[in-house]
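re: ur question from earlier - yeah i can do the single chain one, its not a big deal. heres the input i used so u can compare w yours
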Amino acid sequence: MKWLPALFALFAFSALAADISGNWKATAEGPNGSMERTFTFKQEGTKLTGETTSEFTGKSTITDGKVDGDAVTFTIAAKFGDQDIKLSYKGKIAGTEIKFTSEMAGGPGGGSPMQWTAKKM
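and the output i got, formated as tokens:
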């Protein structure tokens, strides 16, 4: 029975969320070709903050971020031309790679979901 507390500690540790803090570079295929976006994630427990930069929308702040096991979700507010847009991201973490889907709200036509692959830099 002495090993039981150690076993519980091991399971509790393995259930913790992955820490994705750091710099990531993501690519996606858009209607006009390949696009890039960089992310600087700051994770504290399950809370995720940071910023992201792309040539189309410039620099944006990551809000409403959460990491739950291997799942990650967050939103960014950005400008695309004269329009304010909100992009919602959800993804799955696999080691040094994250597969994201992003959806735009408030932009021209609402947009269709985009598939991103981010790699830790």
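Residues 3-15 have pLDDT under 50 and may be disordered. not sure if urs matches, ping me
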